[in-house]
Every structure is written in structure tokens, then in C-alpha cells.
Amino acid sequence: MSEKKINPMLKMGLEMGPIVAFFVAYLRMRDQSFEIAGNSYDGFIIATAGFIPLLVITTAILWKLTGKISKMQIATLVLVVVFGGLSVWLNDERFFKMKPTMIYLLFGGALGLGLLRGQSYLKFVMEEMMPLKEEGWMLLTKRLTYFFLALAALNEIIWRTQSTDTWVYFKTFGLTAAVFAFFMTQGKIFQDYAIEEEDA
Q1: What's the alpha-carbon Rg for the chain, to the nearest Å?
Q2: Torsion, Cα of 70, 83, 151, 108 (10° steps)
Q3: More confident residue, 129 or 146
Q4: CB neighbour burial string for 45-83, b if at least 16 within 10 angstroms, e if fewer
């Protein structure tokens, strides 16, 4: 099924909304404690508990409006539900903090497996957005594989050695900025390996 076009701002809002909502909720509740069913939960756990259904709802809306969601979005949603759910159920924030590590290990591992098989799985996901020659896809995939594995390692270092506040800022802004910066620095690949109209 081909993807239906929707307003780009609406699409961005649905994709980024839950992350922003989690950040705002955490800032408002980080110093509070909540008694629920005889158990005490801090603000981080409550913000996580709200983030999970919100992400499910916005992903479902995005699917309804566009008729399609990517495999990366599905994998992210599953890991959020599993690791976020474990954090809420066990009242242990460590599981949710490990979630970015698992996501980037999954993406990096999948791309790395494709490279070992002589294929670029990234091409299958993004070919319509960025038409490149095969050599370009392989080079970009190799770089992105290393990048994802580096982000996984960095997330582990941050959440294990820094405060929860630092990790929340890192997750909300640092990871997003890192991914944006990565693609912005790959301009030479897009320039050197772009498929021109006459090649098509």
C-alpha cells in the first residue's frame, strides 16, 4: 500500500509529540512522589506510564492517516511498550533507560547483517526518499551501522554514569540532534552517488 500524503507539520507533531510530552511531564513531576495502589512511584515512572499509551495512540493515528508505518517505527513502538512496561510494572527506571540502547543495537545489528550479506537494508527503507547508486547505499549503510552502535554505547555510558535529569535531556535533545547531524554531514555521499534523471 502506498503512503498517503498528509500535512508535514501534522506528521512531525504525531512523531515528536510523545517525546516532547514525556519531557514536559518529567520536568513537572521529577521531584514528586505518587502513591498508587499502595506503591510509591516517582515522576519519571509516571511520565513513562503516560508516554507508552500516547506513543501507541499517535502511531495508530499516523497509520490511519498515511496507510503505512515503517518497520523502524514498529520496532521502536514494540521496544517502548516492552521496556517502558517493565519500568512501570517493576517500578524500576533502568529498563526504560536501556530502551534506546536496544533500539540502536537492533537497527545497527540489522544493517550490519545486511552488509555481511552484501546488501543495504537501508536502501529498502529509504530508496524512495533518497535515490542513490548502489555504492552510495553501501557506504551510507556502513557509516550508519557504526553510528547506531556508537549511540547504543553512548546511551549506556550516559544512563549508567549520569543523573536522570542528564539522561532525559540527552534522550530528548542529544539523540535527536545526533541523528540530524549525522545525515547533515553525509552531503558528499548524496552529491557523489545521487542518481541523475538521465541515469534513471
Answers
A1: 19
A2: -50
A3: 146
A4: bbbbbbbbebbeebbeebeebbeebeeeeeebbebbeeb
Residue with cell 549508567: 160
Task: Convert the pLDDT of each residue in 35-51 to its tens digit.
Answer: 988 889 999 999 999 99
Largest Cα–Cα distance of the chain, in whole Å? 69
Instruction: Please tell me the predicted confidence (pLDDT) of residue 175.
Output: 92
Across the strands, what pairs with 39?
36
Distance CA 163, CA 145 (A): 28
* pTM confidence score: 0.85
From CA 76, how far away is CA 139, in angstroms rounded? 24
For 107-123, the pLDDT digits (tens) are 999 999 999 999 998 88
C-beta separation of 133 from 191 below 8 A: no
Phi first, then psi: what are they for 76, rounded to 5°? Answer: -60, -45
Q: In the numeric block, which cell numbers belong to residue 151?
A: 549511540
Distance CA 183, CA 161 (A): 28
Instruction: Provide the terminal-to-terminal Cα distance of the chain, rounded to the nearest Å.
Output: 23
Q: Which residue has the cell 523502524?
A: 72
Q: What residues does each domain of the chain span?
A: 1-91, 93-200
Q: Nearest-CA neighbor of 14 among 48, 51, 58, 66?
A: 58
